[in-house]
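Appendix B, Record 12. Input sequence as logged:
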Amino acid sequence: MTNQSYLTVGQFMNPLNFQATIKKQVDLALSKRLDGFQGRINATYLNPEKQAFREKESGARVEPQTVYAAVEGFEGSLPWKITETPRPIMNAKKYQIAREKFAQGSVNADFLLYNHIYPEFQELAKRYYAAQKYAMGSVITSGDYTPIKQAQMLVSLVNLEERTYTIDQSFKTVQSSDIIVDIDTYKRFQLGGFDKGEFDSVEPIKGDYTTQRILMRKAMGMLEHTDESMMTPWRHNVMGDALQNLTSDFRRIVAEKVAGEYTGIATETAGGGNLVTFDAGTEHSLINPFLLIGNAASEIDNPPNNGKAAILAMHPDTWRRFLMNSWGRSLFSPVGVGQVTGTIINNVRGLEGFTIYLDKVLPTGKIWILDPQYAFIIQGPVMTENGRNSDRGTNWVIIRNWHRAILVMPSQARFITAT
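Logged structural output:
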């Protein structure tokens, strides 16, 4: 039986061919949505940088925190490197502002949906959202992979508000529109003399710059659904839940990479051990963690490092043992000792000038101390791409997120054993 005879019975659609029926409906809806829209878009790219710039290779002006359509035939390349006129779809910063205003009740729902979308794609967006509004149940269709949907996924990824992890916030995030960046670090010096008398002199001194070329690697997530899933009238928003899971899990990946930088710190400040063991015949703990942290900070702050230790990081269980140490009980009286899953603590007595990051993604038994000016999360481009595998009867979408967590000067970090 030919494909045509299978799709139809005489001049009518074969009522038993549900896949063909749905496909026809989807194709009809998509043709209406894409009417007047020039070119097919299989991929989109997010430029994460916060300032506009001129791309030296193509001469294109690239807008900050903006999602661009990939150039057809060059889906694997950054669009602003291929053409002088890349096509912007939507702006992530404007979407964030719109969400805040909508939450405050100062703008309506239309403003939230359309304010961040560029004029060329406004009509497409209106048709897409209209189709979503009147869709029957939660049936998944290939319309879930239109350029608007892909771009919105990237915008949502940038504006994630989940705070399951905190350790990634201890590193400074910088944005890059490329996957290779050069990081320049400056090693400070101190004046070589003071209270000098007449005709006295000092040796000339200078600070040093070092440059590290960082190649970002990508985290990837792929969501694939079968034709059978398209035929099922789900009671839940299966696609929405899966896409949210896919995008939000990138935060876990970044947090684990930052934790990996902490666990890679090799220099230990001597004197650590069990925080809750008491010195024999006394009412004091054997180890004073405040002194140890002060020693570690001095190793970072004093010459030749000349840094500024300001970050403490540990597992919540280690923090609880810290609270049980006798040297800090009176200082920590206003601090709770209940369940802690991940938090940021400031202005702790005895640890003035430090911000404490607690996160379960870190291993127990250690306290890390570092100078944050050398700790970076480099956020590169983010890409979505979609397609179909006809042999397997599936549709798929892939997100590629280029980033890197790096501590560029390990000499500006220490750890203390704190079991």
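The first helix runs from residue 3 to 7.
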